[in-house]
Amino acid sequence: MNSRELTFTERLYIIEVFKGLWLTSRHFFSNMKRHLARQLGLNRVERGAVTFQYPEERRPFSHRYRSRHRLTKREDGSPRCVACMMCETACPAHCIYIVAGEHPDPHIEKFPIRFDIDLGVCVFCGFCVEACPEDAIRKTSCSKILAYQSTNSPSSSSAISLNKGRANVDGILILS
Amino acid sequence: MPTLTINQKSITVPDGTTIIQAADKLDIEIPRYCYHPGLSIAGSCRMCLVEVERIPKLQPACNTRVSEGMVVHTNTEKVKEAVSGVLEFLLINHPLDCPVCDQAGECYLQEYYMKFGLYESRMDENKIKRHKAEVIGPHVILDTERCILCSRCVRFVNEVSHSHEIGIFNRGSQSEIGLLPGKVLDNNYSGNVVDICPVGALTDRGFRFQCRVWYLSETNSICPGCSRGCNISIHSNRQRPHHAEGRRVVRLKPRFNAEVNHWWICDEGRYGYKFIDDPSRISLARVKEKGEFLVLTLDQAIGRAGQKLKEALERAGRDSVVVIASPQLANEDLFVIRKFWGEDLGLSQIDFRIPNQNPARGDDFLLRADRNPNTRGAEAILLDENGFDLTQLLRREDSRKFQLLCLFGQDLTKKLGVPWAEKFLQQFEYVIYVGSNENETSALSHLILPSATYAETEGTFTNFEGRVQKIDQAVEPLGDSLPTWETVSKLARALGYGYDYDNAEEIFGELAERVVEFQNLAYEKIGDSGVEITDVSKMQVK
To answer: What top-level class would CATH report for the domain B285-539?
Structure first.
C-alpha cells in the first residue's frame, strides 16, 4: 500500500497532537452535554454514548443470535452424536475434540466418549452445525460464555461448565 | 496380440486379456466391485458394464476378452445409465450409515455414487435389517447390512489363503456373508479381506473407531516383520493427537509390488507396528549410576559413550571391544557402523548374528522364518573374509573380561534366554545399548541411547532375494531419538572423525561405491518397487 506523503505541518507532529486532543475532548463534552440534557429532561431525543459494565450488565441480543453449542439428545437422554467427526473435520479453528467409543446397541454402533469444544478457540462460525448429518449439534442463543479463570470448576449457578477452557459434553447438555 | 480401441485410445495387449485389464493399462477407469486383479473373475456386481461396438447388449468388462479390432466405449449415456441402475440396486438395502462406518472416505460405494449415481432414492419399502458388528475373527468385524455380495473375501479365502472360512449363505435377497460352521477367520492373512472389501462390510477391529481415514497421511515403506520385505504404506495421524490414543502410526496397508508381495501382507506384519508408539519407547538417553538410570541429554550421553570407548581402546586395545549390530537396521545404518567401528577404529569383532533359541516359523506364502528385514544387507555389508563369529564368543567359557559392548537394538535376553544373556553381558565392563524400545537387555546395560524406528527414518532394506527397497520417514523421531547412522556419526565426531552425513541418500551413494554387492545402484533409482543387488556368488561362477 502506498501511504500519502506527510505535509510539513503534519511532520511537525505537535500540531497533530493538539488536533487529536481536540477530537477526543469534543466527543467527551458533546456526550456529557447530551447525558446532562437527558437527565434534566431538556432533550429526550438525542442519546449520549453508553458504556455497558460487562459482564454484570448485558446488552440484549436478538433471539436469532446463535452462539453457544449444545448437543441434542435421544429420547433416552443419551447424546444423538455418533462421533462421525464431520464437525471436527469441518471446524476451521480445530477446536473440536471427539473420541469415539463402541455403543452397546449395534444399530447405533458409535458414540462419543469425549466431545469437547475449546470455546476459547472457537470462532462461532456454525460450520459444525452445518456439517452434522444427525442434527446432533446446534447452537443456542446463550451468550454466557465467560469465566474468570480457564480452570474454573463447573459453576452450577451460571450453568457454565468450563474445564481447562473446554466445555464438556455434560456442561453443554445442562444448557439445553 | 489383438489391438483394440477404448474411448478412442488404441492399445495392443496379449491374447486372453480382458477389457478391464486393457483399460487399466490405459488408465481408463471402469467402476468395479467384484473384480480384483489378484482373484478369479466372478462377474457378479455388474458395475463394469461397457459398450462394445457391434454387440447389442452391454458387456461386463471384467469377463469379456479382447479381440482384434474391438471398439469399446466406457463413458456413453447407455453405460452411465446402466451403472447408475446397478448402483441403485446395490444401495436398496444398504443402511447408509456412513457417519459411523470406518470405510467412509475410502468406500467405493461412496465414490461411485458421487461419480455415477447421484440419483434421488426411489426406495419406498423398509430396508432389510441384518446383523451388524459381528466379530468373525481376531482382526475382522463383519457388517452384513453394508455388504454388496461382491464375493471378493470369499474368493480370497478360497484362492489366496486357502483357508476357506467364509462363504455366502441363503438365496436371493436373503443372501449374506457368514462364517462356515465351526470356523473363525483367523488365518495369518485375514487382514487382507478388509483391504479388498470395496465397502464397509469387513472392517478392521484394531482400527475400529480409532481415526477417520481422511485424517491419515500415507508414507511408502517396507514391512520390517520378516525378510520378505513386503511393500507397505504407513498410515499416520500427525495432526490430531487425541485420536487413536495418541498413537501416531495408526495402521499399515499393503502396497502393490509384483516382484514381492503383490497386493497382500500377512497379519503378523500388518499389526506389527505397535512398538512404534508403545510406552516402552526410549525417548531420552539414560545412564546407569549406582543401579539406577538417570536421564542425560543426548550430547552428554554421546560424550560419555565416546569417553568410555576411548578409555577401552587405550586400556585394552581393539580386541576388547565388541559390536553387535542388528539385521533390523537399514543398509545405511549398517554401513556407517562398518565404516566407523570396522574401518576407522579397526575392530574385527563386529557381527549381527545371534542364535535364536526360539526360532520363528515361516509359511509357504509370504511370511519368512527370518523375522528380520535386512539380514541380506547386513551379511553383504558387515560380514567379511576375516570370519569373526559371534556364536563362538557367546559360547566361550574362559573368564577374560572385555571392556565394551555396543549393542544395536537386539534383545539378547529374548533370543538367548535370560541366564545366557546375563552371563554373556557380565563379560563386559561397560555395555552401551542403542535401541528404540526398552527390554530386559537394555535394563542390563550401562548406557542407553535412543534410536528412531523404521517409521521415523529413511533408508533401504535388502530383502532375502537381494531386492533393495526404500523406506520413507512417516513421523518425526520420538524425543531425542535419532536414526542409528546419525548416532554413530555423532559418536565418531566425538572421537574426532569427520562424519557429516546429511541424509540416507548420501550414505547410500558411498555404500554403492564401497560395497561390491551394491555397485551400480543409485538411491533415486530404487523407486517404489526396488532394485536388485549384485549376487557375488553368482558373479564368481561366471
So the answer is: alpha beta
